[in-house]
Fold this protein.
Amino acid sequence: MSKNLKIAILGFGNAARAFAKILDAERVNILVNYDTAIVTTGIVTGTHGALYNPCGLHLESITENYDKTGSFQSPINMTSMELCEKGEYDVLIEATPLNIKTGQPASDHIKTALRRGKHVITANKGPIAWYFKELKELAKENNCEFFYETTVMDGTPVFNLVNDTLKMCTVTSVDGILNTTTNYILEELEKGKDYNDIMTEGKKLGFIEADPAMDVEGYDAAAKLTALLNVLMDAGITPNDIDRTGIENITYDDIMKAKENNKIIKLICHGDKDSAYVRPTLVDKSDLTANIDGTSSMVQITTDYMGKLSIIEHNPDLVQTGYGIFIDLLRVVERI
């Protein structure tokens, strides 16, 4: 007889809905291969209400309706914390909007679930950047699984690669291009486009947020770098420990001067045991980082036994983000 695994979802934005669609598409395969039925008992949003049924919600129709209307049919009043504290679920999926400067309230949601002995998957990088050590210890104390693959580079298996296939390798440094928005802006500047025009066009295309400051000033890249260093190198740092410089002062002239010297400007992230920074950096055009274009991103991991490994994600969309959450759910299914 198959077992039921109940999940609760906090946040129902693009990433959560992409996950929901993959889950619905693979529901039968999960049942056949893992003898497990995934039951969604609750979904809570910040502005569109909530849905809750301990016996299970019909996720497919809910997702379809939300895509069409941007809302739930017959929502109830339930806060995220109420679901965390009182809801019936086995796995909490934390996909609420990011507060990059505090990691809250997502971190408190996760702590509450872990203290109840619930497994947690987060798509929110804030908790990993600000509270990773505490959350990791809390999960261990309560015999819970705690996964976070989607927090950096969408569904690209960065954390899973290291944790599952590079056993007993020590990561000595991390480098990369982790913010796709700034990568896009720098490329458009090189074409001679006006900065304000780039912003307007990028917002229309969905590449740039309504408020791009978190990207342009390097906060997003710093949070991702912090998450990588905390998980892969046990750094125990916060984004405040990153030496951060954004691209807001980079001009077309700067880019042309770099080009004259066969170089290109990229927002580079670097971390090792001695330092961690995010800053615009001149790189040779022959360097791998110079060829990370558009909305692509890359992380380079240097290890003691396997040397340097480069992982590139080419122009991702929401499917990759949803898959990152989904693969973490499968890891929970496999381990319990």
The chain has twelve helices and twelve strands. The CA atoms of residues 217 and 249 lie 9 Å apart. The mean pLDDT is 93. Residues 3-155+318-335 form a domain with the Rossmann fold fold (CATH 3.40.50.720).
